[in-house]
Specification:
This protein is mainly alpha-helical. The protein has helices at residues 3-11, 21-37, 41-53, 60-63, 67-83.
Length: 85
């Protein structure tokens, strides 16, 4: 699941800077719905990371049933913080 493909799928563009606030909100809503319906763990994690970077990710205990997945998400958040992202 490629990052740019995800952006195009949910937002219609690879450049979020070009979106209006309404278009960004609509893409986030679509991604949140798809996240809730997704059963593939890797796809769910990929969507969660984008939602997290947009400040719209569900809490870890809601997003991931598996403790290992929650740990992976915490590691991602730590790496993102350390990188200044």
């Amino acid at each position: 699941m490629d990052f740019d493909d995800q952006l195009r799928r949910f937002f219609g563009t690879g450049d979020l800077e070009t979106l209006s606030p309404a278009a960004l909100a609509g893409g986030i809503e679509q991604m949140r719905v798809a996240f809730g319906l997704e059963t593939d763990k890797a796809h769910r994690f990929a969507m969660w990371t984008i939602l997290h970077m947009l400040g719209e990710a569900p809490d870890l205990d809601v997003a991931f049933k598996d403790p290992a997945d929650r740990d992976a998400a915490r590691n991602f958040m730590d790496l993102l913080d350390k990188s200044g992202g």
